[in-house]
Recover the amino acids of this structure.
Protein backbone atom coordinates (compact mmCIF):
# COMPACT_ATOMS: atom_id res chain seq x y z
CA UNK A 1 0.00 0.00 0.00
CA UNK A 2 1.42 3.44 -0.93
CA UNK A 3 2.39 5.77 1.85
CA UNK A 4 -0.28 8.37 2.68
CA UNK A 5 0.84 11.90 1.68
CA UNK A 6 1.93 13.93 4.68
CA UNK A 7 1.57 17.29 2.92
CA UNK A 8 -1.95 18.07 1.76
CA UNK A 9 -2.98 19.97 -1.35
CA UNK A 10 -4.21 22.85 0.82
CA UNK A 11 -0.87 22.98 2.67
CA UNK A 12 0.89 23.12 -0.67
CA UNK A 13 -1.28 26.01 -1.86
CA UNK A 14 -0.68 27.86 1.42
CA UNK A 15 3.03 27.09 1.23
CA UNK A 16 3.17 28.33 -2.36
CA UNK A 17 1.36 31.52 -1.31
CA UNK A 18 3.90 32.08 1.49
CA UNK A 19 6.79 31.30 -0.87
CA UNK A 20 5.56 33.91 -3.37
CA UNK A 21 4.96 36.35 -0.52
CA UNK A 22 8.53 35.97 0.73
CA UNK A 23 10.57 35.36 -2.42
CA UNK A 24 8.43 36.44 -5.38
CA UNK A 25 6.49 34.61 -8.05
CA UNK A 26 9.67 33.69 -9.93
CA UNK A 27 10.60 31.43 -7.00
CA UNK A 28 7.47 29.30 -7.37
CA UNK A 29 8.85 26.04 -8.76
CA UNK A 30 8.15 22.47 -7.68
CA UNK A 31 11.69 22.15 -6.30
CA UNK A 32 11.52 25.42 -4.34
CA UNK A 33 8.07 24.62 -2.98
CA UNK A 34 9.17 21.15 -1.88
CA UNK A 35 12.19 22.63 -0.15
CA UNK A 36 10.02 25.32 1.48
CA UNK A 37 7.59 22.65 2.76
CA UNK A 38 10.31 20.17 3.76
CA UNK A 39 9.13 17.42 1.45
CA UNK A 40 10.23 15.90 -1.85
CA UNK A 41 9.01 17.14 -5.21
CA UNK A 42 6.96 13.96 -5.69
CA UNK A 43 3.88 15.09 -3.69
CA UNK A 44 3.99 18.49 -5.37
CA UNK A 45 4.15 16.97 -8.83
CA UNK A 46 1.43 14.46 -7.92
CA UNK A 47 -0.98 17.19 -6.78
CA UNK A 48 0.03 19.68 -9.49
CA UNK A 49 1.33 17.96 -12.63
CA UNK A 50 1.47 21.41 -14.23
CA UNK A 51 2.71 24.36 -12.19
CA UNK A 52 0.33 26.66 -14.07
CA UNK A 53 -2.59 25.20 -12.09
CA UNK A 54 -0.82 25.88 -8.81
CA UNK A 55 0.18 29.39 -9.90
CA UNK A 56 -3.44 30.14 -10.78
CA UNK A 57 -4.64 28.92 -7.37
CA UNK A 58 -1.98 31.00 -5.62
CA UNK A 59 -2.93 34.02 -7.74
CA UNK A 60 -6.57 33.64 -6.65
CA UNK A 61 -5.51 33.35 -3.02
CA UNK A 62 -3.31 36.44 -3.34
CA UNK A 63 -6.14 38.35 -5.05
CA UNK A 64 -8.58 37.45 -2.26
CA UNK A 65 -6.01 38.51 0.34
CA UNK A 66 -5.40 41.81 -1.48
CA UNK A 67 -9.12 42.50 -1.91
CA UNK A 68 -9.81 41.86 1.77
CA UNK A 69 -6.92 44.10 2.71
CA UNK A 70 -7.96 47.10 0.64
CA UNK A 71 -11.71 46.71 1.19
CA UNK A 72 -11.16 47.03 4.93
CA UNK A 73 -10.91 50.75 4.14
CA UNK A 74 -13.70 53.04 5.27
CA UNK A 75 -14.07 55.15 2.13
CA UNK A 76 -12.55 55.71 -1.30
CA UNK A 77 -9.56 57.59 0.10
CA UNK A 78 -8.86 54.90 2.67
CA UNK A 79 -9.18 52.16 0.02
CA UNK A 80 -6.64 53.99 -2.16
CA UNK A 81 -4.27 54.48 0.76
CA UNK A 82 -4.57 50.82 1.71
CA UNK A 83 -3.79 49.84 -1.91
CA UNK A 84 -0.56 51.83 -1.77
CA UNK A 85 0.28 50.57 1.73
CA UNK A 86 -0.24 46.98 0.51
CA UNK A 87 2.50 47.58 -2.07
CA UNK A 88 4.78 48.77 0.74
CA UNK A 89 3.99 45.89 3.09
CA UNK A 90 3.63 43.10 0.50
CA UNK A 91 5.81 44.06 -2.48
CA UNK A 92 6.23 40.49 -3.74
CA UNK A 93 2.48 39.84 -3.69
CA UNK A 94 1.85 43.21 -5.34
CA UNK A 95 4.29 42.41 -8.14
CA UNK A 96 2.77 38.94 -8.54
CA UNK A 97 -0.75 40.36 -8.79
CA UNK A 98 -0.07 43.35 -11.00
CA UNK A 99 3.30 43.00 -12.69
CA UNK A 100 3.66 39.35 -13.64
CA UNK A 101 2.16 39.76 -17.11
CA UNK A 102 -1.31 38.54 -16.22
CA UNK A 103 -2.93 41.72 -17.57
CA UNK A 104 -0.91 42.04 -20.77
CA UNK A 105 -2.91 43.70 -23.52
CA UNK A 106 -5.68 45.00 -21.25
CA UNK A 107 -6.57 48.68 -21.03
CA UNK A 108 -7.13 50.56 -17.78
CA UNK A 109 -10.87 50.48 -18.47
CA UNK A 110 -10.71 46.69 -18.98
CA UNK A 111 -8.98 46.34 -15.62
CA UNK A 112 -11.42 48.64 -13.84
CA UNK A 113 -14.37 46.71 -15.24
CA UNK A 114 -12.86 43.30 -14.48
CA UNK A 115 -14.62 40.96 -12.04
CA UNK A 116 -11.75 41.42 -9.56
CA UNK A 117 -12.53 45.14 -9.30
CA UNK A 118 -16.30 44.74 -9.01
CA UNK A 119 -16.18 44.59 -5.20
CA UNK A 120 -14.22 47.84 -4.96
CA UNK A 121 -16.57 49.62 -7.37
CA UNK A 122 -19.65 48.36 -5.52
CA UNK A 123 -18.24 49.46 -2.16
CA UNK A 124 -17.34 52.92 -3.48
CA UNK A 125 -20.68 53.29 -5.27
CA UNK A 126 -22.59 52.41 -2.10
CA UNK A 127 -20.38 54.61 0.11
CA UNK A 128 -20.67 57.64 -2.15
CA UNK A 129 -24.33 56.89 -3.06
CA UNK A 130 -23.66 57.26 -6.80
CA UNK A 131 -24.17 54.98 -9.81
CA UNK A 132 -21.54 52.47 -10.80
CA UNK A 133 -20.99 54.38 -14.08
CA UNK A 134 -20.31 57.61 -12.17
CA UNK A 135 -18.07 55.66 -9.83
CA UNK A 136 -16.06 54.33 -12.80
CA UNK A 137 -15.66 57.85 -14.24
CA UNK A 138 -14.40 59.17 -10.88
CA UNK A 139 -12.41 56.04 -10.06
CA UNK A 140 -10.40 55.71 -13.28
CA UNK A 141 -8.00 58.67 -12.87
CA UNK A 142 -7.61 57.93 -9.17
CA UNK A 143 -6.87 54.27 -9.91
CA UNK A 144 -4.12 55.27 -12.33
CA UNK A 145 -2.47 57.51 -9.74
CA UNK A 146 -2.89 55.06 -6.87
CA UNK A 147 -1.52 52.19 -8.95
CA UNK A 148 1.38 54.38 -10.07
CA UNK A 149 2.34 55.18 -6.50
CA UNK A 150 1.97 51.53 -5.49
CA UNK A 151 4.08 50.31 -8.42
CA UNK A 152 6.86 52.77 -7.71
CA UNK A 153 6.88 51.82 -4.05
CA UNK A 154 6.72 48.04 -4.65
CA UNK A 155 9.70 48.32 -7.00
CA UNK A 156 11.76 50.46 -4.62
CA UNK A 157 11.69 53.42 -7.01
CA UNK A 158 10.01 55.64 -4.41
CA UNK A 159 10.03 55.77 -0.64
CA UNK A 160 6.63 55.30 0.95
CA UNK A 161 5.41 58.53 2.53
CA UNK A 162 1.81 58.03 3.69
CA UNK A 163 1.22 61.74 4.33
CA UNK A 164 2.41 62.76 0.86
CA UNK A 165 0.30 60.05 -0.79
CA UNK A 166 -2.77 61.08 1.24
CA UNK A 167 -2.28 64.74 0.35
CA UNK A 168 -1.87 63.93 -3.38
CA UNK A 169 -4.97 61.73 -3.48
CA UNK A 170 -7.07 64.35 -1.72
CA UNK A 171 -5.88 67.04 -4.13
CA UNK A 172 -6.70 64.88 -7.15
CA UNK A 173 -10.11 63.86 -5.80
CA UNK A 174 -10.99 67.48 -5.04
CA UNK A 175 -9.96 68.44 -8.58
CA UNK A 176 -12.14 65.69 -10.04
CA UNK A 177 -15.12 66.81 -7.93
CA UNK A 178 -14.73 70.42 -9.13
CA UNK A 179 -14.53 69.19 -12.72
CA UNK A 180 -17.93 67.53 -12.37
Amino acid sequence: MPKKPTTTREEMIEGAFQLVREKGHEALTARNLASFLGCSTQPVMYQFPGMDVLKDLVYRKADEYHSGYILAGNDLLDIGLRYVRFAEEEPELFRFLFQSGRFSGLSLEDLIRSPETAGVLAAVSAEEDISVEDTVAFFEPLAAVVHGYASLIANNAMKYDPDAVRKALITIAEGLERKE
Summary: The chain has two domains: 9-54, 71-179. Residues 69 and 82 are 7 Å apart (CA to CA). The chain has a mean pLDDT of 88.
